[in-house]
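**Polypeptide and fold**
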Amino acid sequence: MKTTLVFTLILFALFTLLPHAAAVDTSEWGLPEGAIARLGKGRIYSIAYLPDRQRLAVATGIGIWIYDAETGKELDLLTGHTGFVSTVAFSPDGNTIASGGYDETIRLWDVQTRREIRILTGH
């Protein structure tokens, strides 16, 4: 009897509460008043502005998030490192992103196409 009651309560919770949880925008949870976005997904290791200040790159445990610096909107996620991305920087001309990771690689990315253009190993 107790097992049936517990099972029924669990099913009730799953079918009534869970569908609503998916509709909640967690990117705004716990933001200070006036903040417009949460950057990255998880731990942030480094942030860099594109020289024109229009975009920024955020090095995280899952890749490099590219954001519109004015709106905070996610534009892309660059993946390729097999470990945490520990640092990120833009070239002075703004055409290339360099990222370094725990996988002991430095990766170069084309800013326009957001594709990986070179991997430097053993670093």
In short: The two ends are 62 Å apart (CA to CA). Residues 2-16 form the longest helix (15 residues). Confidence is low (pLDDT under 50) at residues 18-24.
